[in-house]
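Readers of this paper often ask what the protein records in our data store actually look like. The remainder of this section carries one protein's record, kept here as part of the documentation.

:::
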Amino acid sequence: MMRVENDKKYYIDTVCLNCGNHIKKSMYSKSSGFCPRPSYCRYEYMHKQRDPKGCAILDNKNDPDFYYLLGLIATDGDITHPSQGKNRGYNCNINLNKIDEDVIFKIKEKFGGNYRYNHDNTIRWSLRNKKFNDYLISIGIGCNKSKTLDVSNWFFELDFKNQIHFLRGVIDGDGSVGIYKSGRCFSICSGSKQFHIMLKKFLFQISSEGLNEDIHDTYIYIKYTNKHMCKILDLIYENINNIHISRKYNTYSKIRKFYEYKKLI
């Protein structure tokens, strides 16, 4: 390292501990040596020490469960961003019922982050990662997204398998698989018109038979009833080693066994 004099203060030519860019640091400074604000380097460096998996979450784009996670965030998650106002950080959260805590544990094990139990019988996974939040916003998963969610351009550029993994996350977030007195039903609920159009187009390409809509003032259901639902769910649960909510998979298994017994599929 070389010392140079500048305005009667000594500075050291060094590199940022996080990104490796060349910086000048006062030799009297107690700071560790990061790019000056508004860079993200100091926080990112500390994040790597605390949560290496969470810091490197964007390195998982070849993992099927990464797309499941995005589908779950798109439907049952929320993100915050400093652009929303003072004291807003880069946060991503997913809230699930406590009975589905195994999914949260698997997400944390694979992708890092933290979890906590809430007072309303739910469990929350959370991750603070600026680059991940920026990525979510760039693909259309923004803040306050319930009415504005639109990932259509990004989604239709994915290969088919990753679209299915994303859909698995959507089903676990805002979907239902149920057995009722009136029959058996698989549905997805959305408050975003663009998201609904995207899902309908994709599902129609797989199976148009039995596809229905139930339109309300503030949300829309896409539904498949009885045996018609099996073609979609067979793809969703093709590999049960992927992350999924067990109770929905178990209901699907009962439905499929029922129609196999009846020899209707």
